[in-house]
Amino acid sequence: MTIKFGTDGWRAVIGEDFTFENVRKVAQAIAEKTLDDATLRQTNGRAAHPATMVVGYDTRFLSDRFAAAVAEVLAANGVQV
Fold first, then answer.
1. Per-residue pLDDT reduced to its tens digit, 63-79
2. Does 9 score more than 90 pLDDT?
3. How many CB atoms lie within 10 A of CB 30?
4. CA-CA distance, 62 to 53, in Å (whole number)?
5. Which element (helix H / strand E) includes 70?
6. Distance between CA atoms of 69 and 27, rounded to whole angstroms?
7. Nearest by Cα to 4 from 18, 20, 24, 21
């Protein structure tokens, strides 16, 4: 499935396009971009700080499990969660 983003973010039906597999793909892309930005800051002479992110969730169905999947992917890439 193709993941599509609009002006208000990613809209999808849980279990169809919004799956754990797709959530992990998006988390991987976020981790890669975050680490690329951190490397760029370091090469431009700015202070190097470890990439750190907060992952939150709400009361929607499986929100806590989707957040845990995101945190696992980020941490596996060296992002402090």
1. 999 999 999 999 999 99
2. no
3. 16
4. 20
5. helix 63-76
6. 8
7. 18
Q: Name residue 11's amino acid.
A: R
Report the pLDDT value the prediction gives residue 11, as an integer from 0 to 100.
85
Who contacts 59 (Cβ-Cβ below 8 Å, separation ≥6)?
Answer: none
Is a pLDDT exceeding 90 seen at residue 30? yes
Angle at 35 between CA 42 and CA 28, to 5 degrees: 175
> CB-based contacts of 26: which residues, under 8 Å, 6+ apart?
3, 10, 70
Which pLDDT band, with edges at 50, 70 and 90, does 12 fall under?
Answer: confident
